[in-house]
Amino acid sequence: MTPAAFSVRALGTLSAGLLALGMLAACTPQPEPAPKPTKTALFSSDAEAFKAAEETYAEYLTALNETDLSDARTFEPVYDWLTDTALASEKKSLSTYHAEKLHRTGLTDFDAFTPLSYADNVVIAHLCLDVSSVDLLSENNESLLQPDRATRRAMKVTFVEGDTTTHLVIASNHKPDGFSC
User: What pLDDT is attached to residue 36?
Assistant: First the structure.
């Protein structure tokens, strides 16, 4: 067999093999698209979600009450319980207090936790902050708070999914319309 005939025969065999492979590939069904993961609910009931939200706020206040305004490293546990506007606001406040060398006495607490809604892993609730024992003092130990200030504050709090023991973090907290303590 001449080299040219060998090349033609080899080329023919190669072509036939590629054609067969192409036909096999054409007969292979297209893979099914990967199913899109569905977002599962964090909690099995509204009651469970509301309990987690209440625990989240309690943990946040515990961390806040344990801060030492002269030591910015103590702020980090507070930030773990916050996200979005709540985090930005808290960072601004604590940084300002630290920079101005303020210190705090007393503890912030809350009561009257009123669940409003739970949907799409977002919990919304009203609560009342009790700041009656809290004072904010200057470097000279002068109170910076008005003596006639409100000692209970109404708050509307939005909780979202987060990497905490309760699976929630605080996304926003602000004074609500139509709710008072």
Answer: 55
